[in-house]
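Cross-check.
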Amino acid sequence: MPTTDIKKWLSDRPEIQSIFACVCDLNGTLRGKRIPVDQAIKVVEGGVRMPLSVVSVDVWGEDIENSKLVFETGDSDGLCDFTGRDLLPISWTERPTAMAMLWMRQEDGTPFAGDPRRALSTVVERYKARGLTPVVATELEFYLCDPSDDRPKAPHSPVTGKRLDSDGALSLDELQHFDGFLNDVYDACKEQGIPADAAISENGAGQFEINLLHVDEPLKAADDAVLFKRLVRGVARKHGFAATFMAKPYGDRAGSGFHVHFSMLDENGNNVFDNGGEAGTPLMLNAVAGLLATMQENSLTFAPHENSYRRLMPGAHAPTGVAWGYENRTAAIRIPGGSHKARRIEHRVAGADANPYLVLTSILGGALLGIENEMIPTPAIVGDAYRLDLPHLPLDWASAIEAFEDGKHVADVFSAQLQTMLVECKTQELKKFARHVTDFEYHSYLEVV
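Predicted model, tokenized:
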């Protein structure tokens, strides 16, 4: 977005008086500064500085204890580059504002390897070197909740005033009852250039899924997912709701997933997964094999939180085994049916709580390893994956952290710096959770054992 376009964009919107200059941290949270609109040119010309450590803080926004990034460098600043995406209008705040998407580089001008967006960019550049372009679409599930309590409760219908009390898979009534909220979500997506497609009422009470259309720019697809999550939470507050992308906000209801579809184009725009039939090309099978080979050790990027592992349980409509299949939603990797021209891979492991940049880095990076090494996948499964004896995804958070730290393919996808940062961040979060005793533990044990 050239400087002249920035000036015109702002002159057409005199009501905007401030800009949020934001980078994305390891947890997918946007962090940054509120800057007066008269400094907009400084923002887009790379004049904003922030500590490099801002992308490595834990989920509570706290520095990582004994982090080299903080203590050995004196918590040095990095430079924040404008990503080039248009300024983004924010309509759900008290006053209209705008947001600028930034990413980080070091003082010497080199990209900061610990920035999640830089990680995805590195993988995309490797595809470009092979003459390939990933085409990516995402599906994000979330719950609307009643914000009046610390614990989530299903919202009241804006039409009937009654609290939702049953699952409403593909319910048209539920979509229509929340029509005002959904309309504002679609309007905000249009303003921010997010290609929102179909919305459905999902399995849980107050749960929705909105699909984002395929784009041939993986960085934009990840940007869109990050912005979409923030947008949904903001619009929900405007309507008196809370919105959560927790993987499993209710123990007895469906979890929320973040499914990723992708295909691959060559330099002539041909889908290199399409062989004219249902099977897909050998290159597609190489990509599937790479995804299977890296799935267990990259699980921390798909399930990054304590709560994530409540979703990854057998029979909970989320994959638990390392397997793939044709038109099989019990498998972690699904090859959807339909026209061979749209032959693609669906990756079904990630929860909605995951960082979209890290998810796409893991998926596209894993697929690329399979292509580069001409890996051959195990046979496609048929039937219920939960009933098969399959290699299992990590059963808990600690195991996932260890797998990411020790994984033999992790360094082939992620920089050593980001790998260390994510392990340190998640280890600190794990330790803090371990020190907190839940109400259910008191109820079960206090006067019994």
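The mean pLDDT is 92. The first strand starts at residue 18 and ends at 24. Passed to J.P. for a second look.
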